Amino acid sequence: MRRFAAGVCLVTTDGGAGQRGLTVTSTCSVSSDPPTLLVCLNTASALNQRFEANGCFVLNVLSAEDEKLAKAFAGEGSLEQEDRFALGKWAKLETGAPVLKSAAAAFDCRLVDTKVVATHRIIIGEVVGIAADARTSSLVYLDRTWHSL
Fold first, then answer.
1. What's the pTM value of the predicted model, to 2 decimals?
2. What is the domain-level CATH number for residue 22?
3. Where is the Flavin reductase like domain (predicted)?
């Protein structure tokens, strides 16, 4: 799978179950009407249950300048959640989930369905808000290395 190039995103949530964020590459668009996307989360981490419990998430498409955040949210440095979030500047759109201000694009989603497949839970969200910066490059992960497009 390391030969499969993928855009790098931070998926974030906040609500009654607590704040959570992590780096992901397994995500894609599902539909344009209504705008819907999916994210795959490893079931090994109990903290990932917060996405379903909060009922919302933001898919933050990272810019090349956000590599440090990508590494931190992937677990490098073993930072606690609040310390990871302290590394970025955040806003909120419709759902209240954290939107990274430096993201190339951010899709604010209301959770509409989940499904467990093998080791991962697929969360599906309807996009209810968007923020974008067309002036920035995107961060890509290929062969265990970060790249800029």
1. 0.90
2. 2.30.110.10
3. 1-148
